[in-house]
Design goal:
The chain is mostly helical. It contains ten helices and no strands.
C-alpha cells in the first residue's frame, strides 16, 4: 500500500529521499564488494591453504546469515503476527484466519530477509570475481537461497507460536531484544578469541592445521548454512560436477 501511494502521489521530497537512499545503498554495497574482493584475493594467494581458507570464510558467512535470519524472523513475526495494529481490523473482516496468517508470514519473511539478500549480492559477486564461474552460477546460487531463507523463517515463526502460548508477546519481544544484544556481544568476543590475525602470520604447517581445526569447529555440517555454502561453491563448477550442487540443494 505504501509503495502504491508513493507511485500514485509522488512528491519532490519523497523522490529526493528515495534517490539519496538508493545511491547510499549502492555505494555501501560497492564498498562491501571491494572489501570482500580484497580479502578473498589476499587469502586465496596464501600458499597451500588459500582456496580452503576462502571456502571456510564463505561457509562462516552463511553461518552468520543463518543466525541473523533466525533472530530477525523471530522479531519480525512477533511484530507482524501478534503486535501489529491492523490485526483487530483484519480479524473482524470476512477473511479466513489462515489467509491472514499467510499474509503476515510473507510480511515477516520479507521484512527479516531483505538485508541478508542484499548482503549476498556483494558476497556472491566477490566470490565469482575470484573463481570466475560460468553465468549459470548466479541463477543456481539464487535458487539455493530460496529454501535457505524459508527454513529460518519457518523455524522462527514456529518457535514464536509455541512460546506465545505461555508468555505474553510484549514481554517476549523485550526478552528477545536482550538476548540479541547478548548474542552479538558474545559473537564479537568469540571472533576475537579465534585470533584471525594468525591467518596472515608466518607459521609452520602444524600451527596452520591447528588453526584450521579451530576455524572448522563452528561450521556444523548438519546446518542449512553448510548446505547453502556447499551448493554455492559447487555452483561454480555445476557443469562438471552437477551432483556436488544438487546434493546440498536437495538437503535444503
Amino acid at each position: 500500500m505504501r509503495i502504491r501511494n508513493a507511485l500514485v502521489r509522488p512528491g519532490s521530497i519523497r523522490w529526493a529521499r528515495a534517490t539519496f537512499l538508493l545511491l547510499a545503498g549502492v555505494t555501501m554495497l560497492g564498498c562491501v564488494f571491494g572489501l570482500l574482493r580484497l580479502v578473498f584475493g589476499y587469502f586465496d594467494r596464501q600458499p597451500l591453504i588459500g582456496p580452503l581458507l576462502v571456502s571456510r570464510m564463505f561457509s562462516m558467512a552463511f553461518l552468520t546469515f543463518l543466525f541473523m535470519l533466525l533472530y530477525s524472523n523471530i522479531m519480525a513475526s512477533l511484530s507482524s503476527h501478534f503486535l501489529s495494529r491492523d490485526l483487530p481490523l483484519l480479524m473482524s473482516l470476512p477473511v479466513r484466519p489462515v489467509a491472514v496468517f499467510a499474509a503476515k508470514s510473507v510480511e515477516a519473511l520479507a521484512g527479516s530477509s531483505w538485508m541478508v539478500v542484499l548482503m549476498c549480492v556483494p558476497l556472491f559477486g566477490a566470490f565469482a570475481a575470484l573463481r570466475r564461474p560460468p553465468l549459470s552460477f548466479y541463477p543456481l546460487a539464487a535458487l539455493a537461497m530460496i529454501p535457505f531463507l524459508l527454513i529460518p523463517a519457518a523455524a522462527g515463526q514456529a518457535l514464536n507460536n509455541g512460546l506465545l502460548r505461555y508468555f505474553p508477546a510484549r514481554r517476549m519481544r523485550e526478552a528477545m531484544l536482550l538476548i540479541g544484544a547478548l548474542m552479538f556481544s558474545a559473537a564479537g568476543v568469540v571472533f576475537r578469541l579465534l585470533q584471525p590475525e594468525r591467518l596472515v602470520s608466518r607459521t609452520d604447517d602444524m600451527q596452520v592445521l591447528e588453526f584450521l581445526k579451530t576455524l572448522a569447529a563452528p561450521s556444523a555440517p548438519w546446518l542449512p548454512s553448510a548446505w547453502m555454502a556447499s551448493a554455492a561453491i559447487a555452483a561454480t563448477r555445476a557443469g562438471r560436477d552437477p551432483l556436488a550442487y544438487w546434493g546440498p540443494s536437495a538437503l535444503l
